[in-house]
Amino acid sequence: MGNATSAGSERASARPDPADSMHNAGAGWYYDPDDEAVYRYWDGQEWTGHRSDTCLSAIPT
Hints:
Oligomer: single chain
Largest sheet: 3 strands, antiparallel
């Protein structure tokens, strides 16, 4: 029973890093991994602090 509990805890605590899925993505505006109600700018290596509303009709690149 101890193995099942620790295996479940490992799965619950092992959360993928959103930046991992962006590894090959070019710089640009993408849905914010923390809040999909806004766009966030990915500089090609990491998320920046720049955020924008999703209600924009065109996202500048």
